[in-house]
Design a protein that fits this description.
Layout (H helix, E strand, L loop, with lengths): L2 E11 L4 E10 L3 E5 L6 H8 L7 E6 L2 E2 H10 L1 E4 L11 H8 L8 H10 L13 H14 L4 E5 L7 H14 L6 E6 L3 H6 L2 E6 L2 E7 H7 L1 E5 L14 E5 L2 E6 L2 H8 L4 E4 L2 H10 L5
Parallel strand pairs: 3-8, 3-9, 6-7, 7-8
Antiparallel strand pairs: 1-2, 1-4, 4-5, 9-10, 11-13, 11-14, 12-13
């Protein structure tokens, strides 16, 4: 399977935060959801992916190429959709198109106007008059119009109303009919990914916890509920983190088989949502 983005042992240090020893692969032709709490390192990772930040150590490759020798070629093949206005506020979409189009060898005017019509975007109104959703559609139209193979989306649904969020997710599903297109979708709104993601990469405090297919996440992670008398130093090793309450415990496991072997029918096992997984990892440590 072809790898579109590859991080090998990537580290980026700041004064009070670091992305540490990240090994990340993004597979061609799929939607990878990139989840984590605010401040977990999602935006830092995306900036390194786009060469807006350079790692202190490790290797970043896109399409098998390094930015040092192939920056223009790589950027021809990626499109970025941000959660806000990245354009000149006083300019309209037609003028922005005239500025951006010459930068791309594969710019397709016909396709641009097709998406403008499909997204119902005004060509002659200043960008500052666009809603957040319209700004995002404008970013997406531009990314698609130069036939971007990798679309990087940083928190694209944050702040959008539920109807527009649903419309955007349906649109992304339609775009993925093209097997050559790959989407890397950063978000803390995990319910969005239940609809469209093929893979989930989860970052916590600058470290990649896992990068698995959404099917494997469902198979590996579960919520376990039972009485407090079942817990001791040994049984707790089956859990990522345990939440105790007067009525009993609730815990996250990444090894359902081990839980069944240890507890049998004395606990209740339920499927864990991505939100559950984020919540419990924030409260505890991962058992390897």
């Amino acid at each position: 399977m072809e790898i579109v983005v590859e991080f090998k042992n990537v580290t980026k240090k700041f004064k009070d935060f670091s992305v540490k020893n990240m090994d990340l692969q993004v597979k061609k032709g799929f939607v990878t959801g990139f989840i984590g709490a605010n401040g977990a390192g999602k935006s830092t990772t995306i900036k390194m992916m786009m060469n807006l930040l350079k790692p202190d150590a490790g290797e970043v490759k896109l399409f098998g190429l390094e930015y040092a020798a192939h920056e223009k070629e790589i950027k021809e093949r990626i499109g970025f959709v941000y959660d806000g206005n990245v354009f000149f506020e006083g300019m309209n979409l037609k003028d922005i198109k005239h500025i951006i189009a010459p930068a791309y060898k594969h710019w397709d005017d016909t396709l641009f106007y097709q998406y403008v019509e499909q997204f119902e975007l005004p060509l002659n109104k200043a960008m500052k008059t666009f809603s957040k959703g319209m700004q995002m559609k404008a970013s997406l139209a531009i990314a698609l119009s130069h036939h971007a193979e990798l679309i990087i989306m940083d928190e694209p649904t944050a702040g959008l109303d539920p109807i527009f969020r649903r419309e955007l997710l349906v649109l992304l599903q339609e775009l993925m009919v093209d097997d050559n297109r790959t989407i890397f979708f950063s978000t803390h709104i995990t319910t969005d990914l239940d609809r469209i993601a093929d893979y989930i990469a989860f970052i916590q405090r600058g470290e990649l916890v896992f990068n698995q297919s959404i099917h494997d996440v469902a198979e590996n992670y579960a919520l376990v509920k039972g009485g407090m008398e079942l817990l001791d130093r040994d049984t707790e090793k089956a859990f990522v983190h345990v939440h105790r309450a007067p009525t009993g415990f609730e815990a996250l496991t990444d090894n359902i088989k081990a839980v069944k072997n240890i507890f049998g029918d004395s606990v209740v096992i339920e499927q864990a949502s991505l939100e559950d997984i984020m919540y419990y990892f924030k409260g505890g440590i991962q058992h390897v």
